Amino acid sequence: MAKASDPLAQYNAKRDFALTPEPAGKAGKPGGNVFIVQKHDATRLHFDLRLEIDGVLKSWAVTKGPSANPDDKRLAVRTEDHPMSYADFEGVIPKGGYGGGTVMLWDRGTWAPIAGKSASDIADGHLHFTLQGERMKGDWLLVRMKPRPGEKRENWLLRKIDDAFAGGTDDLVGREITSVATGRAMAQIASEENGAKPAKANRTPGAKAAPVRRPRTSAKLPAFRPLQLATLADSVPTEHDWIHEIKYDGYRAAVAATGDKVRIYTRNGLDWTDKFAPLVRHFATLDLPPCLIDGEIVAMDKGGNPDFSALQAVLKRGHGAQGAEDELLFFAFDLLEQDGEALTSLGNLERKERLEALLHHAAPPIAVADHVIGAGERLYEAMCSAGQEGIISKRADAKYTGKRSTNWTKVKCTRRQEFIIVGWKPSNAKGRPFASLLLAQHEGDALVYKGNVGTGFTSAVMDELARKFAKLARKTAPLPVDAATARTAQWIRPTLVAEIAFAEFTAGGSVRHASFLGLRDDKPARDVVPEHAKPAPSSASSVKITSRERVVFPEAKITKGDLADYYAAIAPLMIPQAARRPISLVRCPQGRGKACFFQKHDSGSFGEHVHQIAIREKDGGHEDYLYIDDNDGLLACVQMGTIEFHGWASQIDDVEQPDRMVFDLDPDEQLTFADVKKAALDIRGHLADIGLVSFAMLTGGKGIHVIAPLDRGHDWDEHKGFARHFAEALAIAEPGRFVATMSKAKRKGRIFIDWLRNQRGSTAVMPYSARARAHAPVAVPISWEELPSIDSASHWTIDDCKDLLERAADPGLRGWCFARQALPGY
User: Fold this and answer.
1) Is the pTM of this model over 0.90?
2) Is 39 one of the catalytic residues?
3) DSSP string covering 465-498, please?
4) Rounded to an integer, what distance in angstroms lies between the CA atom of residue 777 and that of residue 791?
5) CA 182 from chain center: how many Å?
6) For the chain, which domains are there?
7) Which of 82, 238, 346, 790 could be joined to 57 by an S-S link, Cβ 3.0–4.6 Å?
8) 98-156 pLDDT tens trace
9) How far apart are CA 498 and CA 212, in angstroms?
10) Which entry of 58, 247, 261, 702 is annotated as an active-site residue?
């Protein structure tokens, strides 16, 4: 390394500043704590981690990039110190020069050694530090490896420490592919810095990438919408088409955000932005598009569980109190609006997947609430065993109505309701301002007495309540009560709302074994009414499946009833992907071994649950195409002998605006599935280079689909043209591996990149569709991280339905195939 007297001598000596745009520089003043990570496509793609120490940027080249998985140890080669002016560098170093290639500013923020450590630990070959970046957060570790004989470079290992920011399946460098400074992808930086501005008609992969991200402060904040409320139920729905979440013990809230503008509303639309200022600051750093998010604000007790009393204590201290910054948490569970588009007409699970995609880069104290599909009873038992409040169950395909509905139910581990405080009884104990509180609820137009509560108060809470009671005192009872209660009661105006836990109601309607949990400032007294548990709602399909015993897959003895049961169970996962798209069906009325045929037109023969949309044909006429929008539509198609579902790359509300690009990798018979997997991973990388996030799906046949979801805003000619140029460019670059034409003669030993799926009227098999092949394989979404371990494109069959439902909750599949990104150039 360079001498201490001139820490940048080596840096300056390696570069010709008449040729490179990199900054020459001198050492700055010590004392700063900046860190940056630059993605650098030189001889080999790598990521440069740089930490400000003693006025320079100490640097390591991390060969595979940082990983959020604590089990991953990334090689980090120590390089020369860089000047502080390099912290803003993004551009292209000319070929032939030192480090020639494209440089992106991939992350930035501040760093600090952990308590008791210092930057001088580098000399000892060990640095434990904390990062507060836009992408890298939490504790990290750099450890120098023992050098081999004759080895001149310093090899270190970079590893994430297991903390709240760690993620075992989170592909950090694969997920984040644009600059934190300009929003550009690598290919866009390369083309723009070199002055290349290709015309639209000549677009090729790499010519243009996603548009530069601009500040969103000028966008309008979404307005508050009435929030959906859950109905109290006495048991958990058991059908597969329900999703289940933890019922958090806190304040319901709606967050409206765009860029650094944030508003937080209570469930009744009160603006409590100031009260939750710490969360507002965290949301402002996410640079979100205009959106309205539904969720719960909580605080944790000493055991790490959400606790209403703990939340009350935090709010009482105020957001400026010591530690309050880290005590408020927000669990998001619904997305009502994004980019000016209302999402309330979509199903619960689809909105949840869009929410996952929107908040994929969020970190505590903001998180997306976990959910399970089916298995609600197991979650309920786990929550009750852990002392939690209970669970919320939601019909997967139900719309967001903004009112109380049985499509959302709550099942509580203990009885808890809201009551109005109407008075109090004096205490004989010294220093205790009252013995108990008198409670009531509205029943119709009447205020009805519900007993009293005398436990659950701290001294501070009792003193605070006594002060409130003094201001609300009244001489007469605000409701009818018996003489014994009235004899010693002190009455107040009925405006305070309290959360009360209790064992049961007595025969006379009073609470038994009640305990005070806290006041609720987010709900007016006029809305406090009794909650009566109802039986768990049933969502059994109204579609009757006949001839259930007919064998559809003779090799595995799988019947029509088995197939229908699979689709009924998998519908929560399939509907968000297949609904509201024109579809083509593969129908095999007598089973897959007999005659099968495609069907895309219909005029109503499938029944009321399968819908039609008139679409213009090439000859100028119109034909009725099929589409479905719920579970019953799926089963109605199965009743008519359908095995496979194939869908357009556009939706029925605007069929001329495609919203996903599909590359079907179809291998020659002599190739192995390992060849296809490698091709898919390479195509993913090429798409990332032009600014597109992509997702993988096993087709259930021989190949893999690489899918890029897109914003609408371009037509079919542009969509098809881009896909064709992309596939042809790969075939030209690697003619021994890829071909972009359908000719089987030219496909020998190669993989056909089928871009024809991206033209108007073409379809692709839908996620979770069964295939009309031996043993009933299924088209299954997978994460890029698990792809290397998969042995074939038909890895799962309909017999694996339980596994498919359980694995859908895997973090690597959250938000699968949902992303807001424009077709490069639009």
Assistant:
1) no
2) no
3) HHHHHHHHEESS-SS---HHHHHH-EEEEEEEEE
4) 13
5) 23
6) 9-176 (no CATH), 229-412 (3.30.470.30), 415-527 (2.40.50.140), 551-647 (no CATH), 660-813 (3.90.920.10)
7) 82
8) 999 999 999 999 999 998 889 999 999 999 999 999 999 999 999 999 888 877 789 99
9) 50
10) 247
